[in-house]
Amino acid sequence: METSLGSALLPLIALAASLVAAVSVGSLVVAWLRKPGPDQTAAITDPRTAGMLAVGFVSGEATRRWLVATVLELAEAGVIAIDDRRGLRDGDEGRARDIHLVFDADSLMVGASADAGDPSTQVVASVFAPTQAGGSDLVSRGASIEVDQVLIRNRPLAWLTRDRLLDAAGWYRERRPVSRFRAATIGGVIGVGLGLLSLPGPEDDSIAWIAVVVGALAIGLRVVLSSWVPLNAAGLELRERAMRVREQLALPNTRTAATLHGSVLPWAVLFGESGAIERAAEAAERFRTPPDWYRSSAPFSSGRLVSCIALVSAQLSQPIRLGPRPVVTPESRFGVPMVADHRGWGGAYFDANGAGAVHGGLGHTGDFGAGTGGVMGYDGGGFGGTAYDGGSFDGGGGFDGGGGN
């Protein structure tokens, strides 16, 4: 009798659990499809003040080029020079190793200042980290590094990128709904598990099948939603204002020498506006006013400057893989870049030419560093390893990361 009663209750419990999972993800979809309320975060929405990575984060693919754009900003500020030592033949772009980044300011103690949160100091310290022998905290004036060596085995730069992406996610993205994700995961697993245990049974198994199907769909939708956490109101405003900057760059009216010494080049590189870069370089050649930060072993020409910037951009663009964009429109809240680089077996964040530097481990280890469950990584293991959360971008192994963002 007790066995029969248990067999009859099992499908009902499974169905109830699956319905909890379905309600959790369904309510989340409804909430995210609504227009966000007024900004409550006091986040900066001016692109020039928010910074290159924040603008890249809300804009999508531009996230990859935040470092290149920031280096050019520092160049225009007189902090970094670009030394172009290429010997070019006709039609030859030369080698990236012959382009050097040179620290062109007074010697800088990077330890205490970087800890204090000076953004420029943090970038300088990270870019020139491979030149600091013995872990020195001093970046001396004239310190030089080949542009193709900046990303290789550069742990400080990898951590800086991670921290800034976490900051951007905290300011410009909706908080990750950990409780609803967890309810969907637990309810879906229980529903599917108990539903399958009820099959085949002596009673009508239609309820069990409904529980299995609903639970499986809820789990699948929950996994998808973890990569589609949308922008909040501040993120949408920052993206809209950034797109205005991009539209201005695309206009063919930046033809004066002054544009090269302003903010055109960093933003043009960030947004991949090659036309704006070419126009600025042509203006510099026409008016014979090459940028102060560009040092060349050959006579200055617009083509040489453009090819130099292209090589620097190719070498300093980070391999940040972006998440899916379910609705690709300017008005969409979705399309936020998600870091999920090389997840799985022995993936690495920096792996250019096979020279990975900041490795994840096997199985459920996070992609960004050692440890289990993604504690040090961009990705947590198991379900939910695609969004920023907890101490990593999706902390915790297993079915759901802990902590919220």
UniProtKB/TrEMBL annotation:
It comes from the Bacteria. The chain crosses the membrane at residues 12-33, 181-201, 207-231. It comes from Agromyces flavus. Keywords: Membrane, Transmembrane, Transmembrane helix. This is Membrane protein YgcG.
